[in-house]
Design brief:
Blueprint: H1 15-93, H2 100-117, E1 121-128, E2 132-133, E3 140-150, H3 152-164, E4 175-183, E5 197-207, H4 210-214
Antiparallel strand pairs: 1-3, 2-3, 3-5, 4-5
Amino acid sequence: MALKTKKIVIPRKNYQRQIRTYVVVTVVIGVAALIYGFFQFQDLSTARAALEDGQTRLSEMTSFEAQIADQYATLKTAFDQDFENVRNAVDGVLPSEENYTALTKTLDDFVLTLNRQSPSIFMSNLKFSQPRMDADEEYAILPFSMTLSTTRANLERFLQYTENSGSLDDASRLLDVRSITINFPGETGLGQEQELLTVSLSLNAYFQTQQTEEQ
């Protein structure tokens, strides 16, 4: 008996469609990758530009900071120098102690300078009294007395010196004339040299107290 046969048809796989699908998918992925890469590049460029701008600004700020630091250092140096000059001037005008020796030398130097420029003036009998506090105890007073043998012109110059004392410009010791007594010479004859005035002066010099220094 003959066997029955059945023809089985095996469908052919559609490779072309599958390939096209792969191609389409590949193209889509490629396009997506390009788009993604483009935007990533844009973002990277923006970030790089921002970074460069930030670095530029940072460099500018660093340079500005250095300039400010230099200006501050210059101003501080000038301020410190001015402060030191003012402090030295104040110490000259109002020293921290009696400074008998310095005061005596200052008066001697001034009288000698006057005598060289316009004779004649001579200082004698310089005597210091006991220092005392002022009424408010804000500063101390050093009373002293002296005698001058001098011409009228040099006496006026000496009194002008005491009047201008205490200036920070020349840091001169602050002085104050308390009293003055003048003995006038007798009349001189024609051709005779004019006799000198004998002047007795009572003065005050001033200096700081410990309380003043602490302030």
